[in-house]
Amino acid sequence: MDNRTAIEQEFPIFYELIISYLINLDDRKRFEYIFREVDKQIFVELRQLLNENLAIKDRIFTYSISEILKVIEN
Predict the structure, then answer these.
(1) What are the per-10-residue average pLDDT scores of the chain (74 residues)?
(2) How many other C-beta atoms can be found within 10 angstroms of the C-beta atom of residue 23?
(3) pLDDT value at residue 37
(4) 3: part of which helix (H) or strand (E)?
(5) Is the whole model's pTM more than 0.85, yes or no?
(6) Which domain holds residue 60?
């Protein structure tokens, strides 16, 4: 979360994929049930960030990991 702005600027496609996966993972099973030892405030802040980016959740990503890595390498 500390580096999200830099990641979003440098790697916008990768950033959207990360946000999309995090939203879907949290929808499946809340993070605090999986990571019980982690301060719950972190998940509150993460959900605020994810809620700001809900439009990303419904996008259909057709990128393969190898395509993303090619973009990142260039």
Answers:
(1) 87 82 86 90 86 68 66 62
(2) 20
(3) 92
(4) none
(5) no
(6) 4-73
**Could you read off the pLDDT of 16-34 as tens digits, one per residue?**
888 888 888 888 899 999 9
CB atoms within 10 A of CB 51: 10
Total domains, the chain = 1
What residue type is 15 in one-letter code? Y
The DSSP annotation for 5-69 comes to: HHHHHH-HHHHHHHHHHHHHHHHHS-HHHH-TTS-HHHHHHHHHHHHHTHHHHTPPP---HHHHH
Residue 26 and residue 57: Cα distance in Å, rounded? 12
The whole-angstrom separation of Cα 65 and Cα 73 is 12
